[in-house]
From TrEMBL, chain A:
Residues 603-616 have a biased composition (Acidic residues). GO terms for cellular component: plasma membrane; recycling endosome membrane. It comes from Sparus aurata. Its main location: membrane. Keywords: Antiport, Cell membrane, Endosome, Ion transport, Membrane, Signal, Sodium, Sodium transport, Transmembrane, Transmembrane helix, Transport. It is found in: Cell membrane; Recycling endosome membrane. The gene is SLC9A5. This is Sodium/hydrogen exchanger. Residues 113-513 form the Cation/H+ exchanger transmembrane domain. Coiled coil: none annotated. Residues 1-18 form the signal peptide. Gene3D superfamilies: 6.10.140.1330, 6.10.250.1040. Residues 69-89, 601-624 are annotated as: Disordered.
From TrEMBL, chain B:
Belongs to the calcineurin regulatory subunit family. CHP subfamily. This is Calcineurin-like EF-hand protein 2. The keyword Cytoplasm applies. Pfam families: EF-hand_7. Gene3D superfamilies: EF-hand. One of its GO terms (cellular component) is cytoplasm. It comes from Sparus aurata. Signal peptide: none annotated.
Length: 644, 194
């Protein structure tokens, strides 16, 4: 994520260059938001635009009457037009067109609205939504919208900006996932997760990179793709990481069992460290030139990996402690409690980015670490607020990502097609993922408590989806140093579309066909809570007796440490003394009470409806009878009249 | 495997244990070493006091009950065979390779594990967990953290949830049913080093 810092600087430069253009409200278009409407200052930087370039396309200039002194910075063109208007109108204007004042937030809001309405529309067709995953449809919608914009404006105005993606969209999703991560399940499977994330990603990256280079040498990849070994290794690094956004989007609809899900999802989060390091290392190698790379640099790469991963985790844990500690004292300021959660989790992300550490790891561990203490400290209302705000934001960020992926694909000026490269990449990533999973699982099963069987391995291989992270990374590449950038962009788009759409579509039938054990949505019962706790104690005791210092032994030690030191520090005094089991019992009671009320209400509603329907029926029949009587009477009188 | 089985010769019932439980030869040897370590006075049997010396067991709320499981009422000593057979409950289920002459229901099957846990609760061995017995377990697990009233509430609720035949106690079947959604294999197994 080092190029990110460079990108931000370029953004600032771009915004500065745009100064005289900005009309009434430069503060709104602050640098670092990626929204500056100006032409990018440096030719080699990727176009950092979210808003359309030429203002003129969007209507009349805003003539802000009661605006601040910012008026004076407006260029001469502005003043002239302003003057003109004033000539024409003369005096007070009742209604004005303030487009440039509201432009930025308005467009953002419209995009959010489009994304949300799209979601509503999709769910109208029940049959459709059970077959086609949402992510698929969003990408298709993006393609359509992109096409529309392209046709209307003859050029692409919007695309998925790496800065926007890495600073706003990705943290929202990862933050939500990290905060609500089932910690116990995560640590139970930590060995598998780490193996797949580190070894698996490295294996994928190197194999893909080397094989693509071989393909180039063999002529399968065209000459036009000017890339050598370093470029291919770089490309291999960014295309081989399993993507958390895509995994979440697809697995959410499939509901595989918890263990399988946590392994794939955990892998997608932890492999960020590997991807970050490989990406940075290869970018620097590419810039320096392959000949100048020394062996010392390789060692630096390994050291860098350790620093990035461990450093990122530590940053996250530090923020978790801070967050827990702060929420201990928020009793008098309940109303802003949720804000602390969002701020500190986000700051964990940004701070890791600041130091070029793994931001995703930081945010994930901040969430995992803080969750227990924060949930205990804050009020019930704050808990609800945090939960639903995070989920809403994450959902909308996901929607936007997929729509913009679709839109970005339509812009032909940014990519170049090479069939050899695309097909080779697709084949390689599928093959190497499968090989990697099988190999690692064979090794892991010798150590795991419950081994992963063949079906699990199939789902894991197939569920290794690539997504927007790869796309954002490829767009960030420097076209000057990586000459084949456009070809890489096209390939990445195809790969991402293939995994999200094709694999996303087919994974549900695959899971059904293979009879993968699904997750049972169950309400926790008090018996489960009691006995699971008892089992933990039993296992710890058995490990002690058998003289094994195993997983449970250490987990128990951690829980002792937590009870005696950490919880004292981070939990509110009144909360500290409560027991978890009692809390669980109360939660179950509350949930039961609510569900009973809901059931009663539903029944009442049904009964009401039935009553209403019966009333309706009754009324209708009454009316019919009345009208019949009336007709009969009418006929009688008529016939009487005639007779008479 | 060859050299290991010759080492097994000095282990009492070694071959039999290899057949009956799911342990590998290396695991049994290791367990024997542990058994000898615990058997401080080298009698070839363990007594309750020997187990009580295991560190951290006294801090464990169910520690005393576990020791009790090794020494059912009437038995004062524990030989190696019984030691291993009890520990066999905690092998992961799939490692139970079916051997000729294996018992009907292996100790480390889900039912076997549940039965072991059930017996920890059911101290008087009457086949049911009464309200009192449940309260005792809760008390030892929660101890000072909750009031007696709260304990009663939790126990009441637990029995209400699980008790199908309304006899105010939880039988083994009801116990098993209440845990049918829990992955027992995961929750009641430990990794024995090979």
């Amino acid at each position: 994520m080092l190029p990110l810092g460079v990108t931000l600087l370029l953004l600032t430069a771009a915004a500065a260059a745009a100064g005289p253009y900005g009309s009434a409200a430069p503060p709104l278009r602050g640098p670092g938001l990626g929204f500056s409407p100006a032409v990018s200052a440096s030719a080699s930087a990727p176009p950092l635009l979210l808003l359309p370039q030429p203002r003129e396309e969007y209507g009349a200039p805003g003539v802000a009457l009661a605006r601040s002194a910012a008026e004076e910075t407006a260029g001469p063109a502005e003043e002239e037009e302003g003057g003109e208007h004033q000539h024409h109108g003369g005096g007070f204007r009742v209604v004005q067109w303030e487009w440039s004042y509201v432009q930025t937030p308005y467009i953002i809001a419209i995009w959010l609205l489009v994304a949300s309405v799209a979601k509503i529309l999709f769910h109208f067709s029940q049959r459709f939504t059970t077959v086609v995953p949402e992510s698929c449809m969003l990408i298709l919608l993006g393609l359509v919208l992109g096409g529309v914009v392209l046709i209307a404006n003859k050029k692409q105005l919007y695309q998925l900006e790496p800065a926007l993606f890495f600073l706003f969209l990705l943290p929202t999703i990862v933050g939500d996932a990290g905060y609500f991560m089932p910690a116990r399940l995560f640590f139970d499977n930590l060995g598998a997760i780490l193996t797949y994330a580190v070894v698996g990603t490295l294996w994928n990256a190197f194999c893909t990179g080397f094989c693509l280079y071989a393909a180039k040498l063999l002529g399968v990849i065209d000459e036009r793709v000017q890339a050598d070994l370093m470029d291919f290794l770089l490309f291999g690094a960014l295309i081989s990481a399993v993507d958390p956004v895509a995994v979440l989007a697809v697995f959410e609809e499939v509901h595989v069992n918890d263990t399988l899900f946590i392994i794939v999802f955990g892998e997608s989060l932890v492999n960020d460290a590997v991807t970050v390091v490989l990406y940075k290392v290869y970018i620097s190698f590419v810039e320096v030139g392959a000949e100048n790379v020394q062996t010392a640099d390789y060692f630096k790469g390994v050291a860098s990996f350790l620093i990035v991963s461990i450093g990122g985790t530590l940053v996250g844990l530090v923020f978790a402690v801070i967050l827990g500690f702060i929420t201990r004292f928020t009793k008098k300021v309940r109303i802003i409690e949720p804000l602390f959660v969002f701020l500190l989790v986000y700051l964990a992300y940004l701070t890791a980015e600041l130091f070029s550490l793994s931001a995703i790891l930081s945010m994930t561990f901040c969430g995992i670490g803080a969750n227990k203490y924060v949930e205990a400290n804050i009020s019930q209302k704050s808990r609800t607020t945090v939960k639903y705000t995070m989920k809403t934001l994450a959902s909308i960020a996901e929607t936007i990502i997929f729509i913009f992926l679709g839109i970005s694909a339509v812009d032909k000026s940014k990519w170049a097609w090479d069939t050899g490269l695309v097909s080779c990449t697709l084949v390689f990533i599928l093959v190497f993922r499968a090989m990697g999973v099988i190999g690692q699982t064979w090794v892991l099963n010798r150590f795991r408590l419950v081994p992963l069987d063949k079906i699990d391995q199939v789902v894991m291989s197939y569920g290794g989806l690539r997504g927007a992270v790869a796309f954002a990374l490829v767009v960030l590449l420097d076209g000057e140093h990586v000459k084949a950038k456009d070809y890489f962009v096209a390939t990445t788009i195809v790969v991402v579309f293939f995994t999200v759409m094709f694999q996303g579509l087919t994974i549900k039938p695959l899971v059904k066909w293979l009879k993968v054990p699904r997750s049972t949505s169950r309400k926790p019962t008090i018996n489960e809570e009691i006995h699971e706790r008892a089992f933990d104690h039993i296992l710890t005791a058995v490990e002690d007796i058998a003289g094994l210092q195993g997983y449970h032994h250490w987990r128990d030690k951690w829980e002792q440490f937590d009870k005696n030191y950490l919880s004292k520090l981070l939990l509110r005094k009144s909360v500290y003394r409560k027991s978890e089991l009692w809390e669980a019992y109360q939660k179950i009671n509350i949930r039961d009470a609510i569900s009973v009320i809901d059931q009663v209400r539903e029944q009442e509603e049904e009964e009401e409806e039935e009553e209403e329907e019966e009333e309706e029926e009754g009324r209708r029949r009454e009316e019919e009878r009345h009208s019949e009587l009336y007709i009969v009477k009418f006929k009688k009188t008529h016939s009487l009249k005639r007779k008479g | 495997m060859g050299s290991n089985s010759s080492n097994m010769n000095h282990i009492p019932d070694g071959q039999q244990l290899l057949q009956d439980t799911g342990f590998s030869a290396a695991q049994i040897i290791r367990l024997y070493e542990r058994f000898e370590f615990l058997d401080k006075d080298n009698t070839g049997h363990l007594r309750p006091e020997d187990l009580e010396t295991v560190p951290d067991l006294d801090m464990n709320p169910i520690g005393a009950r576990i020791i009790g499981a090794f020494f059912p009422p009437g038995k004062e000593t524990l030989d190696f065979g019984s030691f291993v057979r009890i520990l066999a409950h905690f092998l992961p289920a799939d490692s139970n390779r079916t051997r000729a002459g294996a018992q009907q229901e292996p100790a480390n099957s889900t039912t076997g594990k549940l039965r072991f846990a059930f017996q920890l609760y059911d101290q008087d061995r009457d086949g049911k967990i009464s309200r009192d017995e449940l309260l005792q377990v809760l008390r030892s697990m929660l101890g000072l953290q909750v009031t007696e009233e709260q304990l009663q509430c939790i126990a009441e609720r637990a029995i209400q949830e699980a008790d199908a035949d309304k006899d105010d106690a939880i039988s083994f079947d009801e116990f098993r049913k209440s845990l049918e959604k829990v992955d027992i294999d995961h929750k009641m197994s430990i990794r024995f080093l090979r």
